Amino acid sequence: MKNRLKIAIQKNGRLSTESLSILKKCGIEFSDSSNKLFIKSTNMLIDLLMVRDDDIPRLVSQNIADLGIVGENVVFEKQLSDTSLKLKTTLKLGFSRCRLSFAKPKKMNLDNINNKKIATSYPSIVKDYLEKKDINAEIIEIHGSVELTPFVEISDIIADLVSTGSTLESNNLTELDSIMDSQAILVQSSSIPSQKLPLIEKIVARINSVIKAKDSKYIMFNADTDNTDELIKLLPSAESPTIIPLADRSKVAIHTVCKEDVFWETIESLKLRGASSILVLPIEKLSY
Ligand code: PRT
Ligand code: ZN
Question: Which residue has the higher pLDDT, 33 or 278?
């Protein structure tokens, strides 16, 4: 039991599906995951703690969990409000991206936010921002329906998470300055027992390889032999490509991994310059 690695993830919310999916892609198999607080892996010495996202930084800091997947915004808020938290960011995971931004009612005239009442679920981050900018304002801490507070006169403006912007739009709010960008991150305790380190290193390396693979694509196409240099330059972040001669000696096949997504514009540019039979494939795992 002591040697089993514990990973805390959000039980029910925006981070849950992706968190579980990234761990499964790392080859960790789990028994039925529905509705449990504690899930044992069936093939590795790993257990999942299914908890609220707000509890993850403390669970990791207290070594109740060794690793955790949580939003940067939550970690930053908890670290600012409790400086004794002992945890570090190991990897940025690239999902659940959002930003913490100020927003005001569309009809409100606002020159600056000095002396305004700001409703937010992130009081420590907002306080830190205001102090750094030397702004005097009142912070109203509220959890849930922050976007409604200016209209019931609890606040003048808000500071809330935004991803698509549609919540602000449908509540007649305009986004102002952004305080921080956030995404899901992998955190780890700063005092991991040494016997667990090899397994942590293995899991972190696998997660890293899953993340890299997600952004990468394998691209293959045929081209005229004397046109290869020009075509290779069009490929986004390409590794040194493999060039294979074809039966028709005037042509070659080019295969390479692009470390970024390959967009339609790139495919169209390749075609315009004579590439044919273009194939773009997803990559499941990528390890260097
Ligand atoms: O129950 P539990 O405490 O575990 O979950 P929770 O309700 O506190 O969190 P949850 O599941 O809503 O969000 C978990 C994490 O997802 C957050 O801490 C962020 O790191 C991340 N995330 C990414 C977001 C959003 N995008 C997001 N858009 N969290 C919240 N929102 C909300 C925002 O508060 C606002 O109400 O979505 C609305 C805005 O979205 P748009 O798309 O309309 O702009
Ligand atoms: Zn929460």
Answer: 278
| 142 alpha carbon – ligand 2 mean position (Å) | 12
* CA-closest residue to ligand 1 atom 21: 96
The confidence score (pLDDT) of residue 33 equals 62
- Residue 18's alpha-carbon distances to 21, 69, 152, 184, 203, in angstroms, are 5, 10, 36, 9, 16
Q: Which of 163, 174, 182 to mutate to test the pocket of ligand 1 (most atoms within 8 A of CB)?
A: 163
Q: Is residue 171 within 8 Å of 147, Cβ to Cβ?
A: yes
**Average pLDDT, integer, range 31-43:** 84
- pTM, two decimal places: 0.91
Residues with CB under 6 A from ligand 1: 10, 13-15, 52-54, 71, 73-74, 96, 98, 160-167, 182
The domains found in the chain, sorted by start residue, are 5-96+184-213 (3.40.190.10), 98-181 (3.40.190.10), 216-282 (3.30.70.120)
